[in-house]
Structure prediction request, 443 residues.
Amino acid sequence: MASNMTILKMIKDKRDGLAHSAEEIRWLVQNVGSLPDYQLASWLMAVVCRGMTLDETTTLTEAMAKSGEIMDLSDVPGAKVDKHSTGGVGDKVTLVLAPLAAAAGLTVAKLSGRGLGHTGGTIDKIEAIPGAHCELSIERFKQQLRDIGAAVASQTGELAPADGVLYALRDVTGTVESIPLIAASVLSKKIAAGADVILLDVKTGAGAFMRDDASARELATTMMEVGKRLGKHVTCVVSEMGQPLGSAVGHANEVAEAIATLKGEGPKDLTDLSVSLGALLLVGGGLAKDQAEGEAKMRAVIADGTALEKLRCLIQAQDGDPSVIEHPEKMPQPKLRVPVEATTAGYVQNLDALSVGLAGKEIGAGRLVKGAPIDLAVGVMLHKKVGDKVEKGETLAHLLVNDESKVPHASEALLKAYTIGPEPTQAAPLIKAVYAVETAAAK
Ligand code: URA
Prediction:
């Protein structure tokens, strides 16, 4: 009874724009597993609409991190690094970066999430590899770090479990787009995972939860400040998500694209972003003196095949079938590949990442209700991106589908994601700002 009174008061207070006390926030996090979804969802929506102060966000983050164990990685040798994206369309950077950074000598202790809203999640993508999973106990996670220098785990009953509950609800209740909720969700996982170097890739643009650069910068500076208050140095990159990253949007196809990238055959934007983020990690971890040296080391481990070998070890260590590296077709495949053709000639002026993400979700690549299974075979392959020249009737993209009834609407939505005009256009720069630990200012 008392608990229902407290949550009801918190919903009403937040609805009315009042701040919660630290005790209330800690109480909510401690009880998150037993509170009804409808009350939690109402509270989340009130936070989306009314926001939180920095004090509230810090308390929420700390309480969520402490809802499980905080990993102590002091008995794992090497510079422990972790990177997290605030969510994008086609963002498979972790699948490239974790083996890259480990091959370059870092220890990658990564706690990842599932799909959220219209964006995909690393855990779901990894599950497209037969046998692979991210449910690692703390001991197994640490042993894997010692053995191969990389591990990608999901939040479990042991690690940031409160984020697990809130994340699954936010996914299906329109309550993702909130600076305090994203900051607490991301940072609680990073604190729980125990890395020394934390790099956050804050996405901005149509396909991001922060649609404009000003909001993305605000999210970045909030996460740096909350991190600082909780004793963690956080570096943030603000990066472009106006159009999807790479060509593949989905699950199995994104893993295949990550594999191709580690073979040196990936799309330029995905390769460049992974290399830049990897270099920041190398500098943060003391293994490169500057960004240029870091980037050169990253490109070297792609060129000599050691990063690809590291991916093989990672897949094997997490019970997956590493032969997907030679045979990506062993991952779930769609029944149909439906072309979407240009209705006019010109140049791609814009490719709206949100529309692409929603088209993918509509054909089964995202969840509409909590905990629903997703179709790991379906998605979108983009053949034309911003700046590309297009002829009338040329294939812009393929929809990868299993359910034929979804094709007409999804094809129309995908076609509408493209703006084609007469003027040649250039894609926006990939990295818009770096907020580094030392200066906490955009460079
Ligand atoms: N990634 C997370 O882990 N949480 C969010 O809220 C958004 C992206």
